[in-house]
Please model this.
Amino acid sequence: MRALGLGLLLALLPPPAPAETFSAMRSVRAAMGAEGRLLRRLRSYLRDESGRLRRVSRFYERVRALHQDPQASVDNPLLAFSLIKRLYSDWPNVIYSEEATENTQALHDGFQEVEQELPGAEDLDGAARALMRLQDVYGLSVKGLVHGTFQGTGATRTPLYSPSRRVGLSADDCFHVGKVAYDTGDYYHSIAWLEEAVGLFRLSYGSWNPEDRSSLEDALDHLAFSYFMAGNVSHALSLSREFLHYDPSNRRVLRNVVKYKELLEKGTPTRTEPLLRPNSTHLQSRDAYEELCQRPRGQPAKKEMVQTQPYVALYHDFISDAEAETIKGLAGPWLQRSVVASGEEQQKAEYRISKSAWLKDTAHPVVRALEQRIGAVTGLDLRPPYAEYLQVVNYGMGGHYEPHFDHATVRESRKSPLYRMKSGNRIATVMIYLSAVEAGGSTAFIAANFSVPVLKNAALFWWNLHRNGAGASATLHAACPVLAGDKWVANKWIHEYGQEFRRPCSTDPQE
Model:
């Protein structure tokens, strides 16, 4: 897969600080470890608070018994003294308990210890967009996702992935996904997710969950405006009226109700046809890309040739489990958000969600052995600067890379960072699957209309350029979103220069 940072300086940089948890499963697993430490702190807090509350309960029962005892008269000087003492010192001790403060402070301290390792607002937004990406690319039912199933919306309705443990989403979870879409004006997605949030909040209205940061009123408010922006004024009015049932003095919503009623009285047509899904990345090959990603997953035939046009070969058992784990371990501390080219610059992009790191062949004997193996199989010269360092990639939640070429195209001309190595364009790609996944993650060749599933320890090889040096348009490919699992790959990009006698050029435009 294409990445435009050549890694020439990365080996000199310190490991990156924790960030962008959603963009690599390794980071998500680290966040799981941080939550495990928080869970242990919470267990200690609950143990200590339970002991304190038992003592408070005994105080309550003792005082309640005095109030229910008809013989308890403050004429008794001992009872009078006890009353005065309770009101002066016992009740304040219970209400302003230092023990309660200490228990809470210990929990706060434990949270602050791991706070720097925790996901941030960007991670929450990225994770929400990942769910919407999986919803789109794999045609998943939002209602199914909310209830923990990965059910397609197509004719077969066969689950694409069946987790061993079903985990659903809460009303607050659905609200946050819907709000991420809402905040970007994506009402196609916001309506679907906010509808689920409203339905779940209605079921639990009147109860309170300590983790909820939103409410039925929040969901109704955002859903009503989403419908209004989608052209369904009558439903926006209905939802706004329901909102006022819970918060009748909200002036903004009152004004909205007046506005919606006026529009309907003027005969404003109400949109009834379904919204079209936005193509936020303007992907021309989106339908073909998603169809390839949704194809049933099968085991590749036990032969090396996958396709002749373009030339794509699959080498089974190219790397061992131990070698794969070594490479993942070497790359792990250096993973940073993958970037793409924008002119001569490099930047993050929504159409590529992953983290990557670069390894020199001097990093470890396993890397050196792998490079030698690639050279032997391809017959190409991998000595610097004829090939780039080994790039290791870990895909995150819904991690993907939309259709692209590994080689620089004519449109990019010589401004592409690929040419900074002064070794020409990328002539070939070797992509090694370092892990298996449970669902999704295939490599889809869009123009050639075929896909290759993730096959652990196999290596995929293809030519990016024709023998005449022109780019091979049939190599347009994509990394399908990872539906479930932890996808790792290692990429080796080999350049034109140095290969003149290993893959001779041709003047034939067909070669």
Notes: The first helix runs from residue 25 to 68. The first strand starts at residue 305 and ends at 307. DSSP finds 13 helices and 15 strands in the chain. The CA atoms of residues 172 and 214 lie 6 Å apart.
